[in-house]
Every structure is written in structure tokens, then in C-alpha cells.
Amino acid sequence: MEGILELLPGYNCGKCGYNQCRDLAENMRKAEDIGLCPFMGKQQFSENRKKLKELLKDRSDGTNIIGVIDGLEADFTLAPLTGEPSCREDIHPIDGTELKAGDLVRYRPLGCPITHFAKVIKTSRGMNTIHMVGPLQRLGNEDVEFLDAGICLIFAFDGKVEKGRIPRVGETVKFIPTHCMMQKVHSGIIVGVEERNVRIEAIDLKVW
């Protein structure tokens, strides 16, 4: 990390989204991350840019996070918050199905071919926060009844960055939820960061 830090401008201006250059250096993983610093594009840092690209090649060896189903590269994997069984998701049934806390639901996220099973942990104004309990498992009981919520919009994820760099607020990111059966890359916008815990909104499964 020190080698990367020495090649950054050292202005600690915060324009990259981090408090200081040291924080940016700790989270740089690939050549594209150089563009986070608005000063690195200037001529006076051209040699530093070249050296940074070489350093980041070494840093990214063996750490690339690639989606299984789509082959796209993600910024990080998203694991459950401490003590929770899966990432939290905020969902809304397109057909207006009303859910309540404690409901076990069967649904399919818009843009995903896999049927999901979940437990509702809270509801508010049509938004339902859930924990995944499927698609493969049925709470260990094939006789469990699930409410059919049909196709649902996925609005947000709450979880912990497990592997990869910690993003900054306002950044559009690509990520893979660790519980995703297809290990597909999702995208969204970071609206909250607290240590490694993040909230991602504007979720999109159509990632190019």
C-alpha cells in the first residue's frame, strides 16, 4: 500500500470520495481506480500513472471477482450483516401483494430466472425487507407454506463487503451477493458505508 500511496498526489482533498489519499491507496485494486483521483489525469503525474498501473496489476493478481453466470468483474462480494443469515433485501411485489413481518414468501426478482424463497422481517409503505431462505432450501421442511408474491422489484441490499474493496458513498458499483445461486454480478449505487457495512440502492441485474 505504501508504494501506491507514494505515487498519489498527497493532496488529501477528498474529491475521490475518501477522506485522504491513504484511504484511497488502501482500496485501489485495478487500473481503472486511478481515475478516482481527479489529479492523476494531469501531465505532471503521467509517470506516476504508469507506475501505478504496474503496481495495481500485481495487486489484482488472483483477487479478481468474476461472476459465474455472466463472466463480468465485480468490485466486491456482499455477505450478510454480522449475525444475520443472508444479506437484507428490500423488495416490492409488482402485483401489489401485501406482505407482513413473519410471512414466508415465494417470488422471482425482475430480471432473474430463479425463484427465491424468503422471510419478511419488516414492512413499511409497501417496501418489504427480507432475508433469503432459498431457493434451494425450504427451511428444512417441504410442508412449509409460502405466500406467492409473483415478480418483485428489488430496490436495495444491506450487507457487508466480504472480498474486494470498500466503496464510497455515491459510487456506482458491481457486486455479487454471496447467497446468489448463479453468482451473478448485480449493480447499484452506494448510499451508506459504515466500516465494511454498506447499503446499495437502485439495484439492476442488467449489467454490461
Question: Can you walk through the features of this model?
Answer:
With 208 residues, the chain is mainly β. It has two domains: 2-63, Orthogonal Bundle (3-methyladenine DNA Glycosylase II, Chain A, domain 3), CATH 1.10.15; 73-204, no CATH class. The protein contains three helices and eleven strands; from the N terminus they run αααβββββββββββ. The chain has helices at 2-7, 21-27, 46-60, and strands at 65-66, 73-74, 76-79, 88-93, 104-109, 116-124, 127-132, 147-164, 172-177, 186-194, 197-204. A hairpin with a 2-residue loop joins strand 6 (116-124) and strand 7. The longest helix is centred in the N-terminal third of the chain and has 15 residues, at 46-60. The radius of gyration is 20 Å and the shape is elongated.
Give a count of the beta strands, DSSP E runs of length 2 or more.
Answer: 11
Distance between the termini: 30 Å
Mean model confidence by pLDDT: 88
Instruction: Give the helices and strands as they follow along the chain.
Output: HHHEEEEEEEEEEE
Radius of gyration: 20 Å
User: Shape, please?
Assistant: elongated
The percent range for helix content is 10-25%
Number of helices: 3
Reported for the largest beta sheet, the result is: 9 strands, mixed
- Give the percentage of residues in beta strands: 35-45%
- Supply the number of structural domains: 2
Q: What class would the helix/strand composition place it in? A: mainly beta
Low-confidence stretches: none
